[in-house]
Amino acid sequence: GADTNTTADTSNNGLEKTALTVGILPIPDSAPIQIAIDKGFFTAEGLTVRTSIEVGGATATPKLVAGQLDAILNNYVSLFSAQEKGVGKFKVVADSYQAAPDNFVLMANADDASISSPADLGGKKIAVNTLNNIATLAVTASAKVSGVTIDPKQFVPMPLPDMGGALKNGTVDAIWVAEPFISAYSQQGAKKVADTMSGPMADFPIAGWVMNDEFVSKNPKTVAAFQRALAKAQQLAASDRKSIEEVLPKYTKIDAATASVIALGVYSTTLSEARLQRVADTMKEYGYLQAGFDVKSVLHAPTAG
Amino acid sequence: MLELVDLTHSYGAYRAIDRINLTVKQGEVVCVVGPSGCGKSTLLRSIAGLIKPSGGAVLLEGRPVESTPDNLAVVFQDYSRSLYPWLSALANVGLPLRRRGLDRKARDEAAMAALTEVGLGAAAAKFPWELSGGMQQRVSIARALAYRPSLLLMDEPFGSVDAQTREELEDLVLRVCAHHGMTILLITHDVDESVYVGDRVVVLSKAPGTVVGDLTVDLPGPRDQIRTRELDAFVKLRADVGRMVRGITTNHEMETR
Amino acid sequence: MLELVDLTHSYGAYRAIDRINLTVKQGEVVCVVGPSGCGKSTLLRSIAGLIKPSGGAVLLEGRPVESTPDNLAVVFQDYSRSLYPWLSALANVGLPLRRRGLDRKARDEAAMAALTEVGLGAAAAKFPWELSGGMQQRVSIARALAYRPSLLLMDEPFGSVDAQTREELEDLVLRVCAHHGMTILLITHDVDESVYVGDRVVVLSKAPGTVVGDLTVDLPGPRDQIRTRELDAFVKLRADVGRMVRGITTNHEMETR
Amino acid sequence: MTRVRSKRKSFASRVAGLWIVPVTLVLWELATRLATQPYFPAPSTIAVRIQELWFSGPLTRGLLTDEAIEAFAPSLGRLFAGWILASAAGILLGVAIGRSARLADYLDPMLQFGRAVPPPLLVPIFFALFQIGMATQLAIIVFGVIWPVLLNTADGCKTVDRQYLETARVFGFSRADVLWRVVIPAAMPKIFAGLRLSLSLALILMVVSELIGSTSGIGYGLITAQQNFLFADVWAYIVLLGVLGFLLNASFLLLEGRILAWHQRARRTI
Amino acid sequence: MLRGVVGATGLLVVLEAAGRTGLIDTTFLPLTSTVLGRAAELAVDGEFLGHALASLEAWFWALALTIAIAVPAGLLLGVARPAEVAARPLIEFLRPIPSVALIPLTIMIFQNPVHMRMSVAVYAATWPVLINTIYGVRDVDPLAKETLRSFGFGPGATVFRVVLPSAAPFIATGVRLAASVAIILVVTAEVVAGGIAGIGVFISTAGSGNRVDLMIAATAWVGLFGIAVNSLLVAAEKRLFRWHHSRMAGVS
Ligand SMILES: Nc1ncnc2c1ncn2[C@@H]1O[C@H](COP(=O)(O)OP(=O)(O)OP(=O)(O)O)[C@@H](O)[C@H]1O
Ligand SMILES: Nc1ncnc2c1ncn2[C@@H]1O[C@H](COP(=O)(O)OP(=O)(O)OP(=O)(O)O)[C@@H](O)[C@H]1O
Ligand SMILES: [Mg+2]
Ligand SMILES: [Mg+2]
């Protein structure tokens, strides 16, 4: 796996390691890495990047810690929480994705009159893909605006494809979904209850590229090369929607037709400490972090050149 | 009551019995003797409907036997495997009586009576694996007798018991059968026994078994262990059957060795 | 060579044999007779080290038997269960010979020779379930003989074969044993057989079994089926043993009924 | 002799039979202390968590905390309901296909298919088929647990010693008697092996069923702990499951000992 | 065989009808015909075959390892009562622990994702083989063992020549159970933990794209694989255990 080619090889621009295995999620957030692979940005830097499809932070994080993966795409909420709990020492090497309106919405059955806005969420069962991450935080925060406090026990973890059925048969009252499920479930008689990425959560940073602290300090050149290639791809993704639509069918099962209509977030081009500190602060506010958290300690911004 | 017409059976390509013809009358006791491996058990299993003979027919009261006939009891040669290890001796004997429409108490009583008759009254509560070989064999005899079948098939039923018990069991079987008008087909290796117990003795040839002798035993009944065996007729018949069996076996041995 | 000192065994609270004393000399053939359920098989299993007797001791060459003695072969009463269904008759007979350090070919030859001697040369390739009861019994005799043990224990080894085969097997066992100097302990129900085969006949009482008679059979060897049985000494001994067994059994039956 | 002695086995010797438990605990403690891995807390740490989580409640409730009651009650309910349903269905169906070659032929491919499908993947289908959540969870448990019972029962009923059946036939046993007095007792050892396998499987599937679409129970607690990176809690749940399984199995063996006494004694060399 | 096809076809027809008449919501459970079409496409889809091969490899080694561990262990525990009594608390403690709960932990132990999947599968598949082996060993006719003992064979030979062959049919049932448990766990581990290749990876990717048809089609291949493996094992059992079947009555 990931350990191949660890030995420094001077013929590759002095990179400490040229073959990287990167954990991605089969959702639009990961598009830049596929763009970088397809457009040869990694090859140009002397890197060979292989992707591993991950399911979520709970299993991708230990893989990163154990060295099975060299980098992963992870949501910030999960990441900061893991760092605080001492699961590992991580570094964010690039920002990836930030929320845009209607990226992540709460939906309920169209004929369910009891739930039509975040104010109605009290005591309702809400399906989320993972507990203790961006999903629960976003729902909690947007409900708070409407004066409702969500009990963590209201959250029901379940895989996204199961949510439609669970909503329909009443296992849950509301579901928190992203594309392509928003489009699909709308057609199947679900209504949008709230855009959870509005108000306090507007433009909220979602996910970034993460490496082990130790890996970053041992392989500075490789990391820099990785960052350079990724930056080009992030840039392309941010500016050209077509480039995303092109790669989506390659690493997800979202077909070209769907890819052309779904709502996408914003692809970040810089790694901003201020923006990410907002994540940490919000987490602290809702009890996701015990102590204050200085995000600087987990950032590894690209060095110029 | 029982008629075998050209009964033939082969296991795969191997012919075990070959065109056996035999008629057994109601209430008759027929003993079958023949060398080891000649197809006696095969014959019995065909009559019991446990194997479908490859040729010929078994007729019971004139009708062909398609499956296992009603009102039948069998004492298997491999008696130890025909007792149910999860039941006590009493329950093993009592089990078939469920068909007789008896209630639990009546079943237990009948079973206990049968066990006592074979000398196992004291062992009724034991499980088969707690019994000696001969005791197991007696349990399976008790089971067959308690059932009061109209046709009783026995495959070497007295092979594992001592001489004294054997004689008692022979008399017991004859007594019970006469009393209830059972018809019996009894397979044995003991020439004396075949003559003592049987109304007829059928001798089978070496495999594939065919009927080579069918002697009517014309001895006065009821039989008695001492007196019957002293009769000249008995001694003569015994010698006849013995010669017959011996003749076959000798030829047989010649060929297989 | 074999000595039983106050050998006692109880199954749970039930006493099967009670203080049995017996000495068997090297090369001797000892027959054990006794009523069904008196503890003969229990005795045999104690000697074979298969059960740990509750009291007394089994000495072999003066040393107490702790586990199964070396150089022993057993023909079990329940022969059908002691053959391995996944092995052919030949392989069943050949299996113990592995202990003799023979190679495959030598094993097969020895096994084939033994099977031929019991009249099963033609059935060597068959599996146990393809054999008749008597054939299975002969396979297990062949297995014991092929092994050439120094001590051979047989539990009613001839119960399922016809009279002619039985006589041949008796002679075969005697011949093989004499040739290889085996010591034999043979359990039987047949009084004639015990006298014909044995150098000594030991009579056990009803359960719990104890030794009630120990007769030396003083007949000239080698035995012959016709001539030996005609001897006056044979007839007298047979009557003696018969009386002894009968006496016990009668008492026994009285009590259990 | 041996039987009598083993029956009177003293309490002390039974407890001494558990020597492997302290030995394992000590080795485990040493290993985790040497490794110092956040994913692998020491058993002493886990024990403390177990006490805090579930056994620091009021004496009147046997020390159980609210959390314990909240987690255990629904889980155990699902567990037993699922196991009993699966066992009943498995034995019924197993007997049916064990005794009828024709039925077995018809159903075999479907059963073999179903057996290889991971139960979590069926969740969306169950959601589509069942209109209530509880039914979905029970369906997951039953679907996952039924196979060992079904297979072992079918196998046990198919392979009854021929002589047993022939005896039944010649004595003209009724179909019901053949089934109840011969086939099922003869298949009992295999059925019990299947039941025993399925019991701990039921515990596993109870957890699996609670991982998806549940807000209560041990599985929910486990996944919450896992996704919150609370490793001591994760291990507390694992240990809890182990202990529960051990207790369930011990009770099961007691029951089996009663019902299969004939078998165990018949198969013992004395 | 023919009856099996008839039975399966019957079920498929019923499902198709239920979908077409609206009895089942086709958005959650697509029409049978749709799924079959997808499944057929997958059969010639290079990417999917790559995933399938990866799972197959993990499954094969997992099953091999399971047998290599569980059969000897079961024989030992079945023969040596004291060993079984001593090991029982540990076994019974470990048995009910869900492999799924262990996945994040196994990730930390096994660097290679294939090893990780195998370990999870072996963990779960061991129990049916182990328990069936122990029960099979206990089921051995004591007289069969005594026969060999009386000829002076030691415990090793008794185990190898009598216990193992007589328990073999029972063990085989355990192996058949384990074979499907191993498939289930390899796929589940892939679904739960992701990875580079594997049917489970394919399924979770399809899930993230809301392609229920592809998920079910892939799952159907898993099930078909289960049928194939079972048929192979049954055929092997029939050949190997002819002696067993000859003695046991066939179904009536
Ligand atoms: N299931 C079987 N498959 C193949 N051959 C068989 C089978 N059962 C019996 N045979 C063969 O058929 C022949 C007759 O067997 P059968 O059991 O009827 O003999 P038998 O007369 O009862 O002998 P015995 O007196 O020894 O019990 C034997 O040669 C035997 O090898
Ligand atoms: N495993 C056992 N458990 C309990 N009791 C047993 C067991 N085996 C034998 N017995 C009892 O011990 C007594 C002696 O049995 P054994 O088998 O030694 O008799 P035997 O002399 O060989 O009789 P047979 O000639 O009928 O074979 C019998 O009464 C029997 O019920
Ligand atoms: Mg026969
Ligand atoms: Mg005996």
Describe the structure.
Chain A is α/β, with parallel strands linked by helices and 305 residues long. In chain A, 38% of the residues lie in helices and 19% in strands. Chain A has helices at 31-38, 41-44, 57-66, 76-84, 134-145, 160-168, 181-187, 213-218, 220-239, 241-251, 256-261, 273-285, and strands at 19-24, 48-53, 71-75, 90-98, 105-109, 126-128, 155-157, 174-177, 190-195, 205-212, 266-267. In chain A, strands 2-1-3-10-4-11 form a 6-stranded mixed β-sheet, with helices on both faces. Chain A is globular. With 257 residues, chain B is an alpha/beta fold. Chain B folds into 2 domains: 2-71 and 150-256, P-loop containing nucleotide triphosphate hydrolases (Rossmann fold, 3-Layer(aba) Sandwich); 83-148, no CATH class. Chain B has 9 helices and 10 strands. Chain B has a 6-stranded mixed β-sheet with strand order 6-7-8-3-9-10, with helices on both faces. Chain B has a 4-stranded antiparallel β-sheet with strand order 2-1-4-5, covered by helices on one side. In chain B, helix 4 (104-117) crosses helix 5 and helix 7 (191-197) crosses helix 9. The radius of gyration of chain B is 18 Å and the shape is globular. Chain E is an all-alpha fold. Chain E is 83% helix and 1% strand. Chain E has helices at residues 2-20, 32-43, 46-79, 81-94, 99-109, 113-138, 142-150, 155-193, 199-208, 212-240, 242-247, and one strand at 248-249. The relative contact order of chain E is 0.12. Chains in contact: A-D, A-E, B-C, B-D, C-D, C-E, D-E. At the D-E interface, helix 3, helix 6, helix 7, helix 8 and strand 1 of D face helix 1, helix 4, helix 5, helix 6 and helix 7 of E. The structure holds adenosine-5'-triphosphate (2 copies) and magnesium ion (MG) (2 copies). One adenosine-5'-triphosphate (ATP) sits between chains C (11, 14, 16, 34, 36-42, 77, 207) and B (123, 126, 129-135, 160).
